[in-house]
Amino acid sequence: MSHFQLALLLGMTVALGPLALDAYLPAFPDISDALGIPLADVGLTLSAYVSTLGLAQLVGGPLSDRYGRRPILLGGLAIFATAGVMVSLADSLSAMVTWRIVQGIGGAFCAVSVPAIVRDQVNGQEAARLFGLIGLIMFIAPAAAPSLGALMLTLGDWHGIFVLLAGYALFLAVALQTFLFPKLQPRPPATTPVKTLATNYLLVLRHKTTMRFVGIQVLCFSSMLLFITHSSFIYQEWFGLSKSMFSILFAANIALMAVLNLINRPLLRRFSSVALLRVQVSLQFLALVGLVTVVALDSPLWLVAPFIIAAIGWQGAIVPNNMANALEFFPHLGGTAAALLGASQFTIAGGISALSSVFGGGQLLPIVASMLACSAGAVLLALGAPKAVERELALA
Fold this sequence. Notes:
Layout lengths: L2 H12 L1 H7 L5 H8 L3 H17 L1 H11 L1 H21 L3 H29 L2 H15 L1 H16 L3 H22 L19 H6 L2 H31 L4 H25 L5 H24 L4 H13 L1 H13 L6 H26 L4 H20 L2 H10 L1
Helix pairs in contact: 1-8, 1-10, 2-9, 3-4, 4-7, 4-17, 5-6, 5-7, 5-17, 6-7, 6-10, 7-17, 8-13, 8-16, 12-13, 12-16, 12-17, 12-18, 13-15, 13-16, 14-15, 14-16, 14-18
């Protein structure tokens, strides 16, 4: 199976997460009216999904190591699709939150299976290139999801968005069963007793090099999530931009992520993913230093926006390199390692983002300073014994 075919199918699968997050954002006012609840309460359905998406990976990862990628991934898609239909039928906030939690479990089983499948098939630099190609395909989802949701609202109402998500999950199940799993290289049979699945996390937690990369992922993702959480405030309230200008500037982040992702791929043929990661994390930090500086000087938007776009854009290159390195040392526990990475990323970054909302005080400087603090931690992890990390990767 070619890398492009594998990346296309896995990228379409990973895209399920952003679609479930972003596609119904335009429908928040409609859901508020339909359920007779305040608009702010609709956000609970988003928080419930994100929290479950992170925590349920801790269960799905070890199960995929024990029982195989196919049953966990296809089971996750079935759970996701069923919950999507039930969300569309919900007539109260409690029902909608409950089924979004169930949907998050299905989404988590899918999300954790994709990096594990990559680790089963390739490793090292090849894994970094494949993660990059998957990410490039996946960038389409967050860019298109709000527009897709708005289109569904013009054709019907908010219920149709979740029916569409359920249909997409079923389509993925058929596509993966037909075109992916028959062509994958078989994994060695798993013999780990179920009772020891949880203890496998200790193997990952004790691996200092892996945990270094997990830390980098968490901190870089936290910096990006801080921006996403406050992006509407930054652009629409602080700088007074229209919805269309906000959409354009938000899309610019995704565009730069895609460009830097493309540039990263040929560089992997000349430089190690660890060396590239070190440079990319440092450049993201410098962009955030510039951002904090211009915000502290009360600069206009035309000076602030380029630093935001540059800082967020580097995620397009950082993520594939870092994920490949984080999973490198666990060829037989790829699901467990991917689960720890995903759960840490969502739960810790979500907590940091929530704290910033509570203590931000409606000011821009604390937000960007928090982004810089997260980036500084990532730089320290990336630079703190890089030669030892590279030697260990070379021996793996």
